[in-house]
Amino acid sequence: MREAIQLVSLWAIPVLLVVIPLYGLARGVKVYEVFVDGAKEGFDVAIRIIPFLVAILVAIGMFRGSGAMDLLTAWLAPVLGAVGLPPELFPLAVLRSLTGSGSLALTTDIVKTYGPDSLLARTAATLYGSSETTFYVLAVYFGSVGVKKSRHAVPAALLADLVALIASVAVCRWLFA
Amino acid sequence: MLNYIWFGLMAAALVVAGLSGRPAEVTKGAIDSARTAVEISIGLVGVMALWLGVMRIAEASGLIKAVARVISPLLRLLFPEVPREHPAMGAIVMNLSANVLGLSNAATPLGIKAMEELQALNPRPDTATNSMVMFMAINTASVQLVPATMIGVLAAAGSQAPTAIIGATLVAGAIGTTAAIAATRLLQPFYSRGPERPADPGSPATPAEAVPAEENERA
After folding, report:
1. So where are chain B's domains?
2. pTM of the entire structure?
3. Which of A97, B45, B102, B140 could make a disulfide contact with A46, Cβ separation 3.0–4.6 Å?
4. Distance from CA of A80 to the nearest CA of B (A)
């Protein structure tokens, strides 16, 4: 099972990079031109996130530099340690459902601070990739049709976010520790 | 909300720096982080360009429709209230397929279309239907074939194996989505829709009004 999952990680990119253009060619798509056209957007996406990253990373950098982050994780360690959540991931776990750009910045900060191949960085990246900005999604979709009574949507989504958090920590510890 | 968190982090840094005597570290933290933010963003350009290029091919070749064909029998089980041939079903399937492929630009308009179609089936337009809540729960969870942004961030930070997280993300995402579906089904009986026609304003509280006002949490 573990080997199978690692095999997927290893082969996903090379296989998709061939299979998708192959499918495109079979459907008569001008794959090279379409690729270049889509790739142009990569620059825009990366540039667009700079202001968000600067804002959040500077605030986190100050928080960390002052020693406040160490205090926070030291306080949280006994509680979170008991449930198996690394205290360094706590801010990300809380903000993931609230802000997409903010949690992207927090993940980037963890990757930079603990090293991109550390268990913490991989867990943070897995957490980011396996969940969504729940409140943004709910606001956009319910807002678009004017539904005001969302019933069990919020509790169900938050319950699922909690499970995704636990799953990210557990799966990464199983695969990478 | 974010306004307070953002300001709170910086204010807390100043207070703690005053107590611990570390103003220089706070300054360094601010300046270094600003530089890191730009370095990471620029480092993301390559991976994002590569992936968005490939995804444009996927879009142009109708891969969303192909994925939709594969997952639609499964989805019919999750949306028993939506008639088989109703346009809502098509929009839901297309939106979820686009999400799996990581095509968020295509997914959002498809999702809004799905909500509009579901709303057309809704006898009480201010209250979410079971199908809407199920659709939202699956959308707030995430199963992504390739978490391109995270691969880009890890690569920009100099990772030796930035794609190692693909498998982990798929497994964690699948578990989260399963939990979202299960939680929706389990909670459904406790959140009644109330009578199918809007209640008379003068009548006493209906079951629908007894539902906790979860909307407040979104603010």
Report:
1. 33-192
2. 0.86
3. B45
4. 20
